[in-house]
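Re: the pair you flagged

First of the two:
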Amino acid sequence: MTIIKVKPTTNGRRLMTYLKQEVDKVKPEKSLTFGFKRTSGRNDAGQLVVMHKGGGAKRKYRIVDFVMTSHLGEEAEVLSIQYDPNRSANLALIVFKDGAKSYILAPDGLKKGAKVTCGEEAPIRIGNRMKMKNIPVSTQIHNIELTNGKGGQICRSAGGFATLLSVDEKYAMIRMPSGEVRKAIADYYASIGIVSNIDHNKVVYGKAGRKRHMGVKPTVLGKSKNPCDHPHGGGEGHSPIGMKYPKTPWGAPALGKRTRNKKNKSSKLILSRRTK
């Protein structure tokens, strides 16, 4: 992938960059897409909980198969690598011998025409999915399963991967992208490789209009608001927040407080927490 700088014809385009992706210019598979209504930052009660969401271009949601166990041991061919407007990673459209098609997360290096498979002991090849107990140590993996049959839950965004450190009879030890080291059931599935679109975070948007097309509205500081809208609001000009620690619009601590539930059963699986 290549980062392209645009000509500085205006102030907004002076530092703007685009990402030239190696994707196929084809329409999405109709049977695997559907339209959906976005919530624009509101919860199920209609309350505004994210202040800077709304608008943006229309999207069709692609149904991604994060499980891939419906055709165990069967080989599938990659028909195309496609752009997905709903996530930072690209998708791979695959077809099995019986004609069934599905979308999967495309790992970096997967090409059109390649073969992928999901099985307990699949070949060690980019895009293949297998149980972690059968993956060699030090392999980079993604789309990792934490609950049996639920499909991959972690390492699904662009450029994301975890490293398999060791495997024993029951657990596999993996290093997460954050640096956290944790255990996962070795009998659960993971895919081999790094998630595609690695340079996604290097794009400079340059102007607010590009973010508005993505459904992101301008973000306003809490201390610029009225006291009825935010705990930091009020005062003359840009006053300090006037309290011991920053708060959310609903009064909860905003920075530095650990939000993980201490009674979470999976805490015993975390060997070392990420560093701040």
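Second of the two:
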Amino acid sequence: MFRSLRFRLPAFFLAAIALAFLVASLIALRLFQGHTRTENLIELRREASGLAALYSESAARATDEGKAAPAFAAAKLEAATGDRIFYVGLNVFPGEETGLNRLLRTDLPVDVRNASRILTFEFKPPGEDRDFLAASHPLRFEPDTPPFGALIVAKRKSELRDAWLTLLQQLALAFLVGIVVVGALALYLSRRITHPVLSLSAAADEIAEGRYDVEVPLVPGGGEVGHLADRFREMAARLAEAEERERNFLMSVSHELRTPLTAIRGHVAALREGVVTDPELADVSLEIVEAETERLGRLVGDVLDLAKLDAHRFTVLTEEVDMVRLCDRAYLTFTDEARRRGIDYEKRTEDEPVIVSDGDRVLQIISNLLSNAFRWTPDCGRIEVALASRNGAVTVDVADTGPGIRAEERERIFRPFWSRDGRGTGLGLPIARELAVALGGRIELETEVGKGSRFRLVLPAHRP
């Protein structure tokens, strides 16, 4: 369970959210601490400035009138501001009985004891067990006279921590609510994502066991998973097609091998047992054995050529090739079949190019194209071979009046072991195309259903 994607995905999602929230909370808390401290210091300085002005004015008026300074109700001021008020300096104001707490200079930090300007600092007043955040403002009888004391407004630092704890509690509550919402969303999304992935995994298990007719689920909305499902569906279809082609190939090759082997076996047995005594008939039998042997050799050669091409272990020669003579050789190979079937068989030559390539392989390509054309052209049809040279390339066209090729089959016919009618080995066109690519060229196809096809071999004049 803990190793499954359905668990890991929401767990990772929640962990990422929790980590992001923790980092954001720490940053927010740090910023809030700095902001709260700054705001409190500003407030303390403002209060210290206002109270110092009040006490300085009271002390100056009392001095002019020659009587003691009035006692302000410091306790009421503390209750109004929520802060503590301390005094350090000359004995101008009444003592602690009026609520104004007196401090010794030794109770203050060194840099604050004789300060002539407003300062903020931290200290621990006598009798207190907690630190205070304070602002000290000097007291003067006149604006430009030396200070006779200082008024200190202080706030417990624990009040700042209380604000921080309140913020933490609110953040924790928001975190819990967010985790619940995000967890539900993560669970929903993980099910939406993992369901097609699990279905693809189950389909992959079926394919691994050799069952290619699996139903791949449709993924709504597209995206990467939808693309994966589409490609997986295409892969399963191609595997099924490959298995079908392999089965057809085995059946076709078995048939193609059995036919000449049967003929060879029959004629050899007749010659061995003396059934054929006429020398002319014996020569005919030997010619049949030779022809069937060549047929077997071509079949085995096609299979070997395809294997070499697939393994990229195929080598080609480099020589000057007279394309007119080569096309004549390929053309003459099929003249007897054309005459026997009443096919209008023509050869047209526009140029006399000489290229640098492998002549035997070029001949094999043209022969394969012609063999395919004769196979699909009906009796009394028409086949044309045309040789031309243009733009530094040589083209050989093989056109027929066969049934044409449907759009969905134009790529399949170049796949090994695939045949439109289920007969034959399905190796001629695949080998022709692979050889053309190996020689630096290509095979182009123009076809129209019901009217025929034109295969064009394009070769460079000089093979790169």
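The radius of gyration is 51 Å.

-B.
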